[in-house]
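Quick one:
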Amino acid sequence: MATYSLSDIANLIEKDILPKTQEQLENETYLMSKLPKNKFGGFANNDKYFTPRYGRNESIASLAATATTLPTAGKSKYSQGKISTAYTYGVLNLDDRVIESVKGEPGAIVNIVVEEIDRMRQDMGKDINRQLFGDGTGVLSLVSAASTQTTITVTSTQYIHEGQLLTINGDAVQVVNVTGDTTFTVTANVTVASNETAVKTAGVAEMTGLYMAVDNTSFTNTYENIDASTNYWWRSYVNNTATTYTTIADMETEMRTALTAVEKYGKCDIILTGYTLRNKYMQLSSANKRYVNTVELPGGFGHAPEFDGVPMVADIDCQYRGAEDVMYFLDTNAFSLEKLKDLSFRNRGTAGIFEPVTGTTYYEAVVLFYANLMCVNRRQSAKLDNKA
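Output:
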């Protein structure tokens, strides 16, 4: 009867399962599938430098027939930007007793391994997609009600899970239970105030997502080592005036302004938003007896409404700190998911990718994904924020 050792399992994962898992990860969400990968060469080390062009050659001129003097020679103008790798990890355990109990049934071991890795891939894909819409600081939600107790009320518990370690205004807490869409409990009384951030304790060095990339100076001055406060060309169009749309005309006016801002410098090929604003667009169009064209998205992501020929894709992770009130207009040619290391397993233990956990019956495998979102021209993107 055939048996499987840990080394056999490791070989199975690395040779057969991992390549498929990597492909699935990069097509887990629409944004991940749409982004170019390593378009600018990937990371050669922890940091990547690049030179965005911000000014044209000023020497171009049309001369009169009698003119004999050429324009003074000029050149394009460049700056220097820098991004750093973000290191995302996932850890899974296999119990030695489970492995021993099914050693004579290779199929059972394969099923266990495939199930665990598939769940890890789904969880990492979800977290990476959240990061791609975020600001790189690991903020999962905002406190929406001041209190001193074990129950905390936030804008959303979408990214908060049982057993998770969080930091709220410097206080370390552990989630005991998620009790609702906006409430969760922690192990001991903690004092919180409205608008304090619930931060993933091991998440303060995440990828710098769209909320930071698509910005003027509303969120931060410096992005990719370039100061937008002194470099006007390093600013996206941003409309963050609080607005509750009541007519389709008002909504389309702001959307068209954002779209036009992108089209001045590139070609908008995707509008990303949450379900709230996507549904508002559909409802206001219907109320005005407007027919909305739809387009089929590649990769099995279904259909999306079109706005001026651009698909408007709703993504549940397109929110900021629990607020689903943002809409992005992107020319994805200006972006790339630059990688230092594809999804892989750390291979340093005595049994390949598995390492015994001291004092336990578990073997541990560590999943790695080293990457960051890169933008080379912020003007090829725009953002509507604080909308409803």
